[in-house]
Design goal:
Blueprint: E1 2-11, H1 16-33, E2 34-43, H2 50-55, H3 59-62, E3 65-69, H4 76-86, E4 91-94, H5 105-113, E5 119-124, H6 131-146, E6 156-163, H7 164-170, H8 180-186, E7 191-196, H9 207-221, H10 224-253, H11 268-301
Parallel strand pairs: 1-2, 1-4, 2-3, 5-7
Antiparallel strand pairs: 4-6, 5-6
Helix pairs in contact: 6-9, 10-11
Length: 314
């Protein structure tokens, strides 16, 4: 029997039978392995009759379950945050309703976390995705890992266990963009994963929603836009130099930059050089403006300046 206080956070599904099995199975696993625990269910405006389900449960089970009824439906990631804000445990486990028959994973996550890991994910052994979606995911995760200080694996699942100190840091990141895997990875604590066979898809969102989410993540957590703009600026400068040399060679020598004969037209040199310079100038303005928008974005989000992993007395 473990003495740690465990909090389970799950989203209420629209399937009443599934929800009842989830509560019963999770309660049994927690009661058999932990002295103190709580189960927090977040009702994201589901039409399910929770009161009816509650009446079918034993009193000893009901007293360990708390239901947060949200005033209106929000993004599932934001709904999970509502549960994390309410969590009181030494460890908090985000555990989907769909895993009602795999409650033993709760113990596996806890045992792995005791090996000095603050966040432990479930990880797909084999993630079955449509071909285009897999290519999109690989590309997006490559960009995140390449152009940010975040390291993410596309096969990790949102189900995870989080230590108290890691959770305290996570809930400080009060951002409207709540892709939880990105938030978990951004705080910098020790993380690990457990490979399991997961039959359910990571998300039921449409491909367009996933694409929008990918764009938001790339523009919020990476410097990809800065990289693209500075490269466009450099290319425009090189193009400006090349066009200017070509125009001057045509005017004074009658040949182009590649040695081909060219006919000089009065006024053409000035127009081409001026257009090239203006294009380079505009790309420079865009590059500077991107920094301005990024600073505004960071100030609005009010991210913590640092995360303390531990305090040591010498």
């Amino acid at each position: 029997m473990n003495n740690s206080f465990i909090t389970i956070v799950g989203l209420v599904s629209s399937n009443s039978d599934l929800l009842k099995k989830y509560i019963v199975n999770v309660y049994k696993t927690l009661n058999d392995n932990f002295t103190d625990f709580e189960i927090i269910l977040v009702n994201n405006k589901s039409k399910i009759d929770i009161k009816k389900i509650s009446q079918e449960l034993k009193q000893e089970v009901r007293k360990e379950v708390f239901v947060l009824n949200l005033a209106k439906a929000v993004d599932p990631n934001n709904a999970i945050v509502a549960g994390l804000d309410r969590a009181n445990g030494d460890f908090t486990i985000v555990f989907d309703i769909e895993f009602f028959d795999k409650s033993k994973l709760i113990v596996d996550l806890y045992n792995k976390a005791k090996d000095n890991f603050d966040i432990v994910f479930l990880k797909y052994k084999h993630r079955d995705l449509p071909r285009f979606t897999r290519i999109l995911y690989k590309f997006v995760y490559f960009l995140i890992n390449r152009y940010s200080n975040i390291r993410m694996d596309m096969n990790i699942h949102t189900n995870s266990i989080i230590s108290r100190r890691a959770l305290n840091s996570i809930i400080k990141v009060r951002e409207k963009l709540r892709n939880m895997k990105v938030i978990y990875s951004s705080v910098g604590y020790n993380t690990s994963s457990i490979e399991v066979d997961i039959d359910k898809p990571l998300s039921n969102n449409s491909l367009s929603d996933q694409f929008k989410s990918a764009i938001l993540i790339l523009t919020t957590f990476t410097n990809l836009i800065h990289i693209i703009l500075i490269r466009i600026f450099i290319i425009s400068i090189l193009f400006c130099i090349g066009v200017s040399i070509d125009a001057l060679m045509t005017k004074y020598f009658g040949i182009g930059i590649f040695g081909t004969p060219s006919q000089y037209i009065p006024g053409w040199t000035f127009l081409v050089v001026m257009a090239s310079v203006m294009f380079s100038f505009l790309t420079l303005i865009l590059y500077i403006f991107s920094f301005y928008l990024a600073n505004i974005n960071n100030e609005i989000k009010e991210r913590p300046l640092y995360f303390i992993e531990s305090i040591q007395r010498l």
